[in-house]
């Protein structure tokens, strides 16, 4: 291969430095969703409808929030190199990850206590679990703790990524804003889909209906805000970012991520839900909520996968010397590595190269 | 106070990768981990001042490391002498520090047993120097071109201090404010 062709081939390779897998993207989405639901439910019960009994109406949303946070934590722990020692995350005071772990714990425990405290009256058939009513003495306190922690989680998911200055696309104040808006938007969608879905009696359905209408309006505003912030962020990176930011933004706008970004996230995840929500049709609003949830999940995936960092001089060429287009070579390469770890004797195989 | 640093003389480096091999051997690294890749090798300059320029890299042992404060378990630490290292007994493999390092000089191995992944990085051969204080890191000892110079940068009489003081040096990604402690003496008579 002549030098020019060799250099051209290397220039085409986009430097990738991906350490976090899909688990982190799902965790960020579920954490934001759960935190947002808890925060909005706390605001609704404590400030918007303080005299109404919304307990039964928000049972299912709060249960979904708990599931989302627990499932998100599962993915987070699963992604660790050493899952059995996940408790070490609570040790240091300076790390933002530690604050995330604390907030997730407070939110899930507060939500769990709130759910247990309200379980018995909401589900008559499970009256025997009224033993849990002992935790019901401070229902407002549990929901307030969960709601405040939920707000912290929404903000934290974006802040965590933006503190990693090595990644030019993450290291921007716009990312926490975008993630918070997206978390609120998906939380609105999640609550609207599940509001009043818990079996039982005793809810103030008039207040629940009003809450649904309010969330519907909020979701329209939030989706517009999300489109605005997202486009400003990506297009400003494309036009005025540094080389790494421009490279990532180019991938979003007209590169390999463009179909996912324009069709998946902008069109299906934001614009169509906006139109459906504005139309006022209940069926369309349901579809809109589902699409908003899918769009929020896509946003986390695209952001986590945009972890390009500024390459060192000629770094691409070094790391792409491995013949990744030769499956047999790569299989043998990693297999030999595993054999070494097991303490087996290494011997080059014939015909390997 | 002692402050360890390394100078890499690009005028001397011939890109033999001995330092890479020595490091891999001494630290018994898995196949997919390299602490000190020798980047570059591209021909630079104009005839007759052409030069094949190599950039040997390793952990920059920054004065303001991004990878230490972000660690949720306290496994990622910096000694008073500036050496950044990972306490494997505390690491849980969350890879936040790996993502925080602007130089990509930390990694976990994908070839080790599941549930046994921890973050690895260059420590300026901390254990070796603790056992034998007079010894340099293995990559420095191995470099037959003497392109790597290791020592106490706070000691005005050390070889590294004298070399850095009299040479034109640069550091990688200095604009990020991490204050990296690997100084490069550029090839081509100081012209970059």
Characterization of this structure:
The complex is a heterodimer of chains A (353) and B (192). Chain A is mainly α and 353 residues long. Chain A has a single domain, classed as Formate dehydrogenase/DMSO reductase fold (Up-down Bundle), CATH 1.20.1630.10. Chain A has twelve helices and no strands. In chain A, helix 2 (22-48) crosses helix 6, helix 6 (174-194) runs antiparallel to helix 7 (205-240) and helix 6 runs antiparallel to helix 10. Chain A is globular and about 65 Å long. Chain A starts with a helix and ends in a 12-residue tail after the last helix. Chain B has 192 residues and is α+β, with helices and mostly antiparallel strands. Chain B has one domain (4-185): 2-Layer Sandwich (Alpha-Beta Plaits). Helices cover 18% and strands 21% of the residues of chain B. In chain B, the strands form four sheets. In chain B, strands 8-1-9 form a three-stranded mixed β-sheet. Chain B has a two-stranded antiparallel ribbon with strand order 2-3. In chain B, strand 2 and strand 3 form a beta hairpin. Chain B is globular, with a radius of gyration of 17 Å. The model of chain B has no long low-confidence stretch (mean pLDDT 90).
């Amino acid at each position: 291969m002549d030098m020019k062709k060799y250099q051209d081939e290397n220039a085409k390779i986009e430097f990738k430095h991906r350490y976090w897998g899909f688990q982190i993207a799902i965790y960020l989405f579920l954490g934001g969703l759960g935190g947002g639901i808890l925060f909005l439910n706390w605001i609704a019960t404590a400030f918007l409808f303080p005299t109404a009994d919304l307990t039964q109406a928000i049972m299912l949303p709060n249960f979904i929030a708990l599931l989302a946070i627990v499932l998100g934590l599962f993915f987070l722990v699963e992604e660790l190199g050493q899952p059995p020692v996940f408790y070490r995350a609570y040790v240091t005071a300076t790390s933002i990850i530690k604050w995330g772990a604390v907030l997730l714990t407070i939110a899930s425990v507060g939500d769990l206590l709130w759910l247990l405290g309200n379980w018995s009256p909401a589900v008559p058939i499970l009256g025997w679990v009224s033993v849990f009513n002992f935790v019901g003495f401070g229902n407002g306190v549990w929901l307030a703790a969960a709601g405040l922690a939920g707000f912290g989680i929404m903000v934290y998911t974006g802040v965590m990524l933006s503190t990693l200055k090595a990644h030019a696309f993450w290291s921007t104040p716009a990312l926490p804003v975008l993630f918070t808006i997206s978390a609120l938007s998906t939380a609105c969608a999640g609550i609207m889909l599940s509001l009043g879905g818990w079996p039982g009696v005793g809810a103030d359905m008039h207040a629940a209906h009003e809450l649904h209408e309010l969330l519907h309006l909020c979701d329209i505003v939030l989706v517009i805000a999300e489109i605005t912030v997202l486009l400003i962020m990506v297009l400003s990176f494309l036009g005025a970012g540094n080389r790494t930011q421009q490279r990532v933004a180019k991938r979003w706008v007209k590169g390999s991520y463009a179909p996912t970004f324009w069709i998946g996230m902008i069109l299906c995840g934001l614009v169509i839900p906006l139109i459906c929500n504005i139309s006022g049709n209940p069926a369309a609003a349901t579809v809109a909520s589902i699409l908003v949830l899918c769009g929020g999940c896509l946003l986390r995936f695209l952001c986590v996968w945009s972890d390009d960092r500024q390459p060192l001089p000629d770094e691409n060429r070094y790391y792409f010397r491995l013949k990744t287009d030769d499956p047999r070579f790569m299989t043998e390469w990693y297999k030999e590595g595993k054999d070494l770890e097991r303490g087996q004797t290494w011997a080059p195989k014939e015909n390997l190269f | 106070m002692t402050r360890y640093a390394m100078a890499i003389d690009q005028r001397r480096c011939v890109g033999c990768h001995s330092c890479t091999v020595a490091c891999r051997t001494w630290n018994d690294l898995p196949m997919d981990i390299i602490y000190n890749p020798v980047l570059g090798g591209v021909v630079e300059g104009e005839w007759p001042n052409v030069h094949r320029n190599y950039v040997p890299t390793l952990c920059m042992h920054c004065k303001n490391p991004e990878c230490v404060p972000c660690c949720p378990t306290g496994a990622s630490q910096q000694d008073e002498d500036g050496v950044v290292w990972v306490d494997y007994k505390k690491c849980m493999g969350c890879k936040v520090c790996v993502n925080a390092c602007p130089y990509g000089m930390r990694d976990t191995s994908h070839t080790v047993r599941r549930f046994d992944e921890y973050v690895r990085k260059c420590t300026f051969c901390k254990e070796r120097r603790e056992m034998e204080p007079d010894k340099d890191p293995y990559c420095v000892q191995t470099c037959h071109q003497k392109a790597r110079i290791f020592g106490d940068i706070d000691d005005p009489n050390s070889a590294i201090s004298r070399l850095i003081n009299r040479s034109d040096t640069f550091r990688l990604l200095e604009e990020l404010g991490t204050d990296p402690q690997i100084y490069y003496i550029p090839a081509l008579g100081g012209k970059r």
